[in-house]
Structures are given as structure tokens and as C-alpha cells.
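Can you give me the bound-state structure? Components:
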Amino acid sequence: MSQLQEAHGQVITSAEHLHRDAKGAKIGMWLFLFTELLLFTGMFLLYAAYRYIYSAEFHRAGLETNTLIGAFNTIILLTSSLTVAISIAAIERGEKRLSIAFLVTTVLLGFLFLVNKYFEWSSEISRGIYPASPKLMEQSNGENLFFGLYYAMTGLHGLHVVAGIIVLSSLVVLLVRNRITQSDPVKLENAGLYWHLVDIIWIFLFPLFYLIK
Amino acid sequence: MRRAMQTTPKSAGSSVRYGTYILVWLALIALTSLTVGVAGMNIGALTVVVALLIAAIKSSLVVNIFMHIKFEDMIFKVFLGIAGLILFIIYALTFADVFIRK
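Here's the bound-state model for the whole set.
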């Protein structure tokens, strides 16, 4: 009886300990996300200042970006946010297979986003639109700045998608090996937070680069 | 085993239903269609304001539901509030500078 109570007490203490750790890990993750936000904020500030100074050129240049691919990639990233959220909810309910399936789906959607990006950039580069290209050097400063920011910002965002794919793929392995479980899902939760941040940044990039008309 | 599971404190988001996530996703897709539709209309300088407003609504859905901020402890909301305030100050000061210099 007392042994049982002791065992039970231990379960509670270890669970409480786990809980505290998980909260600390999550706070750490949020602090990291704020530094990411500052990194992108610098670029959004540049965009805002140059768009204000060169508004006519930004509008002209904005017509060159492919709204359809941009919208398609927006839907892909929003859907990948849904699938990673479901993957986390599934492991928290102890549904391991469902969690793995939705996490793999998230990774595949990330790849699909990058494939679209590849075709998009290829088509623009083949039309002579890339930083310091002869075509852009002939045009005004404003158009050159627009495409400089376009490549820098969507490129940095693309690198974050690559990083997210690497992290989420390794978490698939940890899920399979039971290193992420119903009682200890914080690694997956934090990776999910990162993936959602990448989604949020795209939510702002999309109207700023693809919807100027 | 089962009892042990029940005593394990639930993490913040575990009460969110799959259906809630799907509803939020549908709202995000609808808002994306809306922002593309509005961009095609000729409303001048309002275009960027409406686009950023829609982007802000979409972000708050992602932050609150997908990122569980709505269900987290107060400390996370305070953090987010302070971060938001700092960003606001940075943007406001930069814009003031750019507008005055022009």
C-alpha cells in the first residue's frame, strides 16, 4: 500500500518536473522566435522605406512577380501549418501513427513549396530578372531595389523552410523511435512553433511582393 | 498506467480539437482568397492597408490557435506583448524618420 503510494507519488513528481522543463523549453523557443522576428523586421523596414520613396517603381516591378505561384505557395504553407498542428495534437492524444503521417505530410508540403520556388525563380532569372542583371541595371533604382529585396527576403525565408524541413524530418525519426511521446511532446511542439513562424513571415511576404498592382 | 497518464499535466494545446484546427485553416484559406480578390480592385492607397490588415488577422489566427498562445499561461502573452511593443516602436520611429526626411 505504502509502496504503491510511493510509486504513485513518484509518478506525480516526475510528471511535474517534466512539465516545468517543457514550459522552460517553450519559453526558450519563443525567445528564439523573437530574434528571428527581429532578423526579418530589418528587411521589412527596408522594404517599407524604399516602397514609400519609390512607390511607382515598386508597383511596376510588382507586376512582374507571379501572383498565381505566390497564392499557391501561400495555400501550401497554410496547409502545412494545419498538418503540423494536427501532428502535435495527435501525439498529445497518444496517436503515434497519425502523428507520424501528418508530420511526413508537412515535410512533403515544405518540399512542394521549394519546388514551386525553384520554377518561379528559374522563370524570372531566364527573363533577366536577378540582382544586378543587365536588364535591371538599365531600369530605375526602385525596380532594382524591389527585386533585390524580393530575392533577399524570399531567399532568407526559403532557407528557413529548408531548416524547418531538416528539423521536422529528424523529428519523424524521433517519433518512430519513441523519443517523442504523449508524455514528452515538447520537441515536436517547439519545432511546430518554428514552422508556424515561417508560415507567418510568408503571410506578410505574399501581399508585399505578389499583390502590388 | 491509465491513472498515471491522467495525473500527467496536460500540455496547453491538448484540449484543441482537430475540427478547430480545420476551421482555422478554412478561415486562413478564405482570407487568402479575399486578399487576392481585394488586390485586383482599384482602391488606390487603401490596397496595402487592407492587405496588411488581412495579413495581421491571418497571423493572429496562427499565433492564437496553431501556436496555442490563447491557451498558454499569462507569461507567454506578456512576452508576446512586449515583443510586439518593441517592434511597434522600431517601426514607428523608422517611419517617422522616413516621412520627415522626404
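A couple of observations. Chain B has a mean pLDDT of 87. Helices of chain B lie at 2-7, 18-40, 46-66, 74-101.
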